[in-house]
Design a protein that fits this description.
It is built from 12 helices and 7 strands. By secondary structure, the chain is α/β, with parallel strands linked by helices.
């Protein structure tokens, strides 16, 4: 919940040309709902795509305050679903995330599906069982073709906005065992390799290249570091 619509537009205008000049990776920004149309216009003609931070799974109806996939269709290309803050503060469930993924795909949006454990779960040795359970619940009932259209972001809750970060090797090991191997079991090797898996949690320009060198980390879901113009340096560092 950062930046007004005007501030978001001013920000992307500052960084758009520099981001557009970076080749070899896909780039997207996910502003607040009210800023999406203006930010999309400001980025028109660039390689930078736009996403939303959330959505509800119903197409329309008496759900005051919610944003439907039909409302986002045509305005943006991506939508973040199941972010740990949505789960923690707003009671989102694995079942609800599953429904949101289906709705997003039905409206031509690419879901960025977030999974991740708390510090207590991590310290108790529950990371693999918890994260793999989130992955299985999120994609229950999906065909391999539908799953392949999605992006998954592993974001350890204890590393979000804390300055703490899993090491690149820790993130790789968790993503391999708790996400990629689960996808192989659910959908087969080819589909599992086609699904992009990101790491998120105190990613910076200083550590992004370490994460991107890992074989099972395909990108980054960047939080606080994306709010500053130095985000451009982080994106440059992702090209390895």
């Amino acid at each position: 919940m950062n930046k007004t619509a005007d501030a978001a537009v001013e920000f992307v205008r500052e960084i758009a040309a520099d981001l557009n000049a970076i080749n070899g990776i896909d780039i997207a920004v996910c502003p607040p709902f009210i800023a999406i149309p203006a930010v999309a216009r400001a980025l028109a003609g660039t390689r930078v795509r736009v996403g939303a931070q959330n959505m509800y799974y119903e197409t329309s109806g008496a759900y005051t305050g919610e944003i439907s996939p039909a409302m986002l269709q045509g305005l943006c290309q991506y939508v973040i679903l199941g972010h740990s803050e949505r789960r923690a503060y707003f009671g989102e469930t694995d079942e609800g995330v599953n429904k949101k993924i289906s709705a997003a795909l039905a409206h031509g949006l690419t879901p960025i599906v977030c999974v991740g454990e708390s510090l207590a779960q991590n310290q108790a040795g529950q990371t693999q069982s918890f994260v793999s359970g989130q992955v299985r619940a999120a994609f229950a009932g999906f065909s391999p073709a539908a799953a392949a259209e999605c992006v998954i972001a592993y974001e350890p809750i204890w590393a979000i906005g804390t300055g703490l970060s899993a090491s690149a090797q820790q993130a790789e090991d968790i993503i391999r065992a708790s996400v990629r191997d689960v996808l192989i079991d659910m959908f087969g090797e080819a589909t599992a390799q086609a699904i992009r898996i990101q790491y998120g949690g105190s990613v910076t320009a200083d550590n992004i290249s370490d994460f991107m060198r890992q074989p099972d980390i395909d990108g980054a879901l960047v939080g606080g570091a994306s709010l500053k113009t130095s985000f451009v340096n982080l994106v440059r560092g992702a090209v390895v």
